[in-house]
Structure formats: structure tokens, C-alpha cells
Write a structure and sequence with these properties.
With 342 residues, the chain is of the alpha/beta class. It is built from eleven helices and 13 strands.
């Protein structure tokens, strides 16, 4: 029988722990719950010690962000569990949320990770931005979701209530094989936060693994708990990390793909400028220079990934441009995309 650890990465999130931990304990069927604390300055650890002595605490030495925080925590429990359920502290789980996810990995050895349906905590009829009904990737390596394309979030009316392969699963709530996580060396710590789970999934797909969405499980996500969606810091991380990810994982002619992506980023910057969001323009420029400064390191990582590439999987890849479909054709939902392009 497989063993699973639910691991919550926490940084100054005592309010979320207070709000969501009771429901998690109620609906998690005795599975071990671990809180990995990223050197919080609030009273998160004391709160857990006083109120939830059965919850295991891992004290990380520093706040290294999402990527390093999870890497440090999971390294300390390596070899003890078959699966890790990576869970944001701002998520409300529901009854029988975990067993459908575990069942997917138990039944399919080729699947490395699976995510539930992720809906908005505050607008419960809507999907949530970070993950929705599973992550996809277009031909220019722009990630999007079934249920969320760019800033347009759909209402859930059962349109995605079937299990299917996706390109990536959300780090907000992801069940992943411990063996695969450690085989890949965990998250890339240079990302700090944002898109590290997409990079991890892409690296796993380069080794022949696949990922899945399972609608029999539903959770509700507050979202934007660490960085608001309109934060220039988030813009910087998203643009920089997207370039990092493409450089490492793109299978085709890299210079051409990067040059084209930089042009598209320039258009995005112009759009921000027209909206007088100059801090976001500066964030994109900063992201580009940060990328240039890491070319040597990224090229070494790319070489390592290419060396270990083995029967890559392409499920969840959209062979069209999501930018063209969204901004030119006016397509706002996944259902409207040409299914022949997948």
C-alpha cells in the first residue's frame, strides 16, 4: 500500500493555518500532515505546537522561496513516503479530496503527478487562476489552463469533469511521486517562486513521464496569498522564470525560440506601458537582464536535461498560439480552442 505525506510550505501564514488546517485534518483520513516552515517571523510554529501537536513540523533555516523551501523540507523525509501531496496553506480541501488522486498514481506507473479541480475560494462557482482544471502549454511555451486563459477565468459548470492528460499540474495542490521528485533533483531553486512546478513537470515529461487532471477531487484556493496577482514582483518572476524554463527545456532550435519570445515580451511591455503600468514594464526589462546573467548556468542545465532525455511525452501541448487565439480571434475558453491542435 502506498504511503503519502501532505506537505504544506508555510511562511508567516498562521492566519491560513488557523483557517484551513482543521478542515484539512477532518478530510485527510489519517494521512500524515507536515508543515515545512520557511523561517516565519510570525507565531506559526508556536501555534502548531500548542494546537496541533500531531502535525509534524520541519523548520527550514531560511526563507528560500517556494522552490528551495520544498527542496529542503522534502530532502529531510526522502525515502519515507511514496507520494508527496504539495499543498498551499491557503487551500480549503473537501471531503474525499485525496483518495482519487492517490488512486491515479496507484493505477498508472507512467503518471508522475496529478492535480484536483482547483476553484476560487472567494467566488466558488469559478475556477482559480493557479491550476484550474489542469495546465497546458502552447507552441511558444506560454502556459495556460483549462478553465483559465491569461486573466479570463471560467465558471465551472462541469465542462471539464473528465480525467485527462495535461502538460503541467499546479504547485498549489499537486500529488507527485517522491521517486520522480528526487530523481529530477526537485524544484530549480533559481526560480525562487512561480513556474517552478511547470519546469519540474516539463523536465519529467522529457524523461517520459506524464501528468493528469482528476475532477473527482476538488479544492478551493484563496490565491495571491504571498504575492498579489497585480504585483510587479510577480511580473518579474513570471517573465524571468518563463525564459529560464524555455532555455532549459525547449527541444527545437533555441536561439530562434528565445528571440521570438523576447519580441512577444516586448509587446507585453508595450501593453503595460499603454496602461500606465510602468513598474511592470521595468519588471519585464529587469527579468530579461536577469535571464542574460544566467545564460551560462542555464546552458549547463539544458545540456544535462538533453543528456537524460528519454522518450519525451507531449500530452497537453497546444500546437497553436494561445496569444493569437486570445487577443486576435477573441477565444477566451479552452473549449473554444481547436481540439485538432492538441
Amino acid at each position: 500500500m502506498s504511503t503519502t505525506a501532505i506537505v504544506i510550505l508555510n511562511w508567516n501564514g498562521v492566519d491560513f493555518l488557523t483557517q484551513f488546517l482543521p478542515t484539512l485534518i477532518t478530510h485527510s483520513g489519517g494521512y500524515e500532515i507536515i508543515v515545512a516552515d520557511n523561517a516565519s517571523s510570525d507565531n506559526s510554529v508556536l501555534f502548531l505546537q500548542q494546537n496541533y501537536p500531531d502535525v509534524k513540523i520541519i523548520n527550514n533555516a531560511s526563507n528560500g522561496g517556494f522552490a528551495k523551501g520544498y527542496n529542503d523540507a522534502l530532502q529531510t523525509i526522502q525515502g519515507q513516503y511514496d507520494y508527496y501531496l504539495l499543498l498551499n496553506s491557503d487551500i480549503e480541501v473537501t471531503e474525499n479530496w485525496l483518495s482519487p488522486l492517490i488512486s491515479v498514481l496507484d493505477r498508472h506507473a507512467e503518471i508522475a503527478g496529478v492535480q484536483p479541480k482547483i476553484k476560487s475560494f472567494h467566488q466558488r462557482n469559478l475556477f482559480e487562476h493557479a491550476g484550474a482544471a489542469g495546465g497546458m502549454m502552447d507552441k511558444n511555451n506560454y502556459p495556460f489552463c483549462r478553465g483559465r486563459i491569461f486573466d479570463y477565468v471560467e465558471e465551472d459548470h462541469g465542462q471539464y469533469d473528465f480525467s485527462r492528460e495535461v502538460f503541467w499540474t499546479s504547485g498549489a495542490c499537486m500529488l507527485i511521486r517522491a521517486s520522480v521528485f528526487h530523481e529530477l533533483g526537485g524544484f530549480d531553486e533559481s526560480f525562487f517562486a512561480h513556474m517552478e512546478e511547470i519546469d519540474l513537470c516539463w523536465r519529467a515529461k522529457n524523461r517520459g513521464y506524464s501528468f493528469r487532471f482528476e475532477p473527482a477531487s476538488t479544492v478551493y484556493h484563496v490565491g495571491g496569498g504571498t504575492l498579489p496577482y497585480e504585483s510587479p514582483r510577480k511580473t518579474f518572476l513570471n517573465f524571468r522564470n518563463s525564459l529560464y524554463m524555455i532555455h532549459k527545456n525547449h527541444e527545437g532550435w533555441l536561439p530562434g525560440k528565445i528571440f521570438y519570445r523576447l519580441l512577444l515580451d516586448g509587446i507585453a511591455g508595450a501593453k503595460f506601458a499603454v496602461g500606465f503600468k510602468f513598474k511592470h514594464v521595468a519588471a519585464i526589462i529587469k527579468a530579461h537582464f536577469a535571464y542574460y546573467g544566467q545564460l551560462g548556468s542555464l546552458s549547463k542545465k539544458r545540456g544535462y536535461i538533453i543528456q537524460l532525455r528519454n522518450s519525451p511525452t507531449s500530452g497537453g501541448r497546444f500546437k497553436g498560439s494561445i496569444l493569437f487565439n486570445y487577443f486576435v480571434k477573441g477565444i477566451k475558453t479552452f473549449e473554444q480552442l481547436d481540439k485538432k491542435r492538441f
